[in-house]
Amino acid sequence: MAGETQSDCLFCKIVAGEVPATIVRESETTVAFRDINPQAPTHVLVIPKAHYPDAASLAEGAPEIAADVLREAGRVAADEKVDGIGYRVVFNTGSGAGQTVWHAHAHVLGGRGLNWPPG
């Protein structure tokens, strides 16, 4: 069920401290950690501590936490010093868009040129 910890979810296990991650920020409702397969010099995932399978379900079920995820993404960019040069916040929703972990998460990417459209 949305909002409840899922025992088989990798990101829920990171939130619980059962799986190690390089955590760079943590708030009451979010955790931010480095991606294990970075696609840019800065590649940090910002996740809600509560389980929602994707960005749409997070926005529908807990809009205040969705706002927290975006706020923390901006803070990660500032901490990583990419806020002044530009960065991207990406939510992949669905397997066709590249989502591989079914727990809502924002990718904060920066530190190199980011072409448009993304590919």
UniProtKB/TrEMBL annotation:
The active site is at H105. CDD domains: PKCI_related. It holds the Pfam family HIT. It comes from the Bacteria. InterPro entries: Histidine_triad_HIT, HIT-like, HIT-like_sf. Residues 10-119 form the HIT domain. SUPFAM superfamilies: HIT-like. A motif (Histidine triad motif) lies at residues 103-107. One of its GO terms (molecular function) is catalytic activity. This is Histidine triad nucleotide-binding protein. It comes from Streptomyces lavendofoliae.
